[in-house]
Amino acid sequence: MRTIKLVIAYDGTGYCGWQRQTNGPSIQQELERAASIICNRQITVHGAGRTDAGVHAVGMTAHFSIATALSCRVLQKGLNALLPEDIRITAAEDEATGFHARFSALAKTYRYTFFTGPVLCPLRRLTTYHLPYPVSLEAITACLEIICGTHDFSSFETAGSRDKSRTSGRGAIRTIFRATIEEADPGFFQLLITGDGFLRHMVRNLAGTLLEVGRGKRDVPEFSAILQARDRNLAGATAPAHGLTLLKVHYRYDW
Amino acid sequence: MRTIKLVIAYDGTGYCGWQRQTNGPSIQQELERAASIICNRQITVHGAGRTDAGVHAVGMTAHFSIATALSCRVLQKGLNALLPEDIRITAAEDEATGFHARFSALAKTYRYTFFTGPVLCPLRRLTTYHLPYPVSLEAITACLEIICGTHDFSSFETAGSRDKSRTSGRGAIRTIFRATIEEADPGFFQLLITGDGFLRHMVRNLAGTLLEVGRGKRDVPEFSAILQARDRNLAGATAPAHGLTLLKVHYRYDW
């Protein structure tokens, strides 16, 4: 029995998210359908986590177990031939027995992209949140410094999701290793956040609150107080899904 | 009567091209619909040229005539409010009487984007042609140097289109001011071509032939001979529409 790790990129626009669901097509379902055809039996694909409806990925990971003589290269080509064009396997490789896409992951990096100019280029509309207001990079950077390190992120957890996302016994405590903002192209800003794990909607809730600080609707001390309060009712709006992309899942060997 | 110049960006994926047609939605039709609502009378919008079905634009231009007291800023905002999200007016400004988006244009710049890696990121699939083979930048650059200057481009004109695209009395003679290739991101290459005008499908026919040279299916002397032969049957395949973007239409003041 082999354990195959997949690295997956997808345009989340047309999907109800990573997880198999009844209300629409999901990335997991498409992968399982394709893998089951290639392997000629029902395959369950285990993802490194879930992404919400509309969220994109460049480096999502998943694994599945299979007894096959097919090379990883052939598996990858076969999957890509069967998958829709908005889902691509960018890498397939054998892992040691016991590898688990989710439990072996040490960290994830997310990118949140927003554009502050008056008119967003339509070629970038599906991956960029349009926030047509000037933002203070200094204020956002100050907040990003505050979230780095280990904190209880209850204030940025989506209400009602407590039971589901706290499966590791560490409650809402997470460690952010790195959090930066950069202007990639004129007017296009990217928040890049790497952490050992994220609560449900945590990146979007952080992004929404950071953008409120950036626009001057809140100040840095208020952001700090929100984090410390551990009360979801204090934080800002959840930023839209389409600005979010899962860039990478980090495992021991690349961390 | 005022002459309003528009700069327009669009994702051409869902359109049958710039020009009003009966077989599907066109950019021109959407613009005329929106402009007619704002101006409360039937408006005809004149484009700087036509783009094929699936071709994108960042800086297409058009003009229309109107007697209105509305400011350009209000016109732009109103149009964007009425247009679908995949078409955006990025600028609207008054021009002198006699300005014509097409006849006043001195040059246009097109970009053709292709990716040579094995798996194309799905987030870029709608604007990038996937050509999963190594290409020789040196060979393509040599061909780009050959097309610079004034030539008869009959070999790169789509067969059967002669009557329509030769309206200026200059036959198939066009001048290319600048033609370059660059690697924008790893594996992503951009052909950038600026000329005083382009025959129907000329950029896509050039791109298709240049890519055949890049892959080694033809050599540079052969490319040169194709240009000189003025025979469409010799050139390579027409490169797919979705890799092409009209970047800019140049007028006197910015040229």
From TrEMBL, chains A, B:
Name of this chain's protein: tRNA pseudouridine synthase A
Similarity-based family: Belongs to the tRNA pseudouridine synthase TruA family.
EC number: 5.4.99.12
Stored InterPro entries: PsdUridine_synth_cat_dom_sf, PsdUridine_synth_TruA, PsdUridine_synth_TruA_a/b_dom, PsdUridine_synth_TruA_C, TruA/RsuA/RluB/E/F_N
UniProt binding sites for substrate: 110
Pfam families: PseudoU_synth_1 (PF01416)
Subunit structure: Homodimer.
Coiled-coil regions listed: none
Biological process (GO), any one: tRNA pseudouridine synthesis
UniProt keyword list: Isomerase, tRNA processing
Active site: 52 (nucleophile)
Residue ranges constituting the Pseudouridine synthase I TruA alpha/beta domain according to the UniProt record: 8-103, 148-251
